[in-house]
Design goal:
This protein has about 180 residues and is of the alpha+beta class. It has three helices and ten strands; from the N terminus they run βββββαβααββββ. The strands form three sheets. A five-stranded antiparallel sheet has the order 2-10-9-8-7, with helices on one face.
C-alpha cells in the first residue's frame, strides 16, 4: 500500500479587514506533497497523522510535534519534516499562535463544524462564540467555510449590526486550517 498526503494551501482574502489581526492566520506555503510511503513490516496505517505547532509573528512554524500517529513511522516523520517548512502570513508584533492540524478529509458539514469549533473557542473564547451561535458550514470549492451568525438588533429586518463573526476556512481534502479570522 502506498500512502500519499497532499497539503495544498489556498489563499483567501476577506475584504474590510484592516491592520494586523493577531488571531488571523493565512498560509503562504506552496503545495506540499508527501508520497511514496509504504508501511514497514509490522506497521499498519491506522489514520491520518496530526501535528500541533505554533505560528510565530514572522510566519514561521515552531514547536512542531506529532500529536496523533498514523501507524507508519516513515509517514509521520515525513509530515514533520514537511510541516516545519510551512510559512504563514507575517503578523508582526503578535504573540505566537497555537495550531492543531487535524489530518484527514472533511466529508460533510457536520465534520467541518466539529473540526472548526474547538479552534474558534480557543482563539476567541466561549463568551464570544456563544454570542455568535449558531455556527454554519458550507463548501466553497475545496474549502469548508465555517462561520458564526451575525445577530443584528431586534427583529429580522434590523440593520443595526455591531461587531462581526468568527470564521474558519478548512481544507476539504486534508482538514488543514487554511485561515481563521474574525470580521469587523
Amino acid at each position: 500500500m502506498i500512502l500519499t498526503l497532499i497539503f495544498a494551501p489556498v489563499l483567501l482574502s476577506q475584504t474590510g479587514r484592516t491592520g494586523i489581526d493577531c488571531k488571523s492566520l493565512v498560509m503562504r506555503s506552496e503545495v506540499t506533497v508527501i508520497d511514496e510511503v509504504q508501511p514497514e513490516e509490522g506497521e499498519k496505517y491506522r489514520r491520518p497523522p496530526m501535528v500541533a505547532y505554533e505560528v510565530q509573528d514572522n510566519g514561521d512554524v515552531r514547536k512542531l510535534r506529532l500529536v496523533r500517529h498514523s501507524g507508519s513511522k516513515e509517514l509521520d516523520e515525513k509530515l514533520l519534516s514537511t510541516a516545519v517548512q510551512w510559512k504563514y502570513q507575517t503578523r508582526l508584533g503578535c504573540a505566537a499562535l497555537k495550531v492543531r492540524l487535524a489530518g484527514g478529509p472533511i466529508p460533510n458539514e457536520a465534520a467541518a463544524l466539529k473540526m472548526a469549533e474547538p479552534e474558534l473557542l480557543r482563539l476567541y473564547g466561549a463568551i464570544v462564540i456563544a454570542s455568535e451561535r449558531p455556527l454554519t458550514a458550507w463548501l466553497w470549492g475545496e474549502i469548508w467555510v465555517v462561520s458564526e451568525t451575525l445577530h443584528c438588533g431586534k427583529g429580522s429586518n434590523s440593520t443595526d449590526c455591531v461587531g462581526g463573526v468568527a470564521t474558519a476556512h478548512l481544507s476539504k481534502s486534508d482538514g488543514r486550517v487554511v485561515e481563521i479570522f474574525h470580521t469587523e
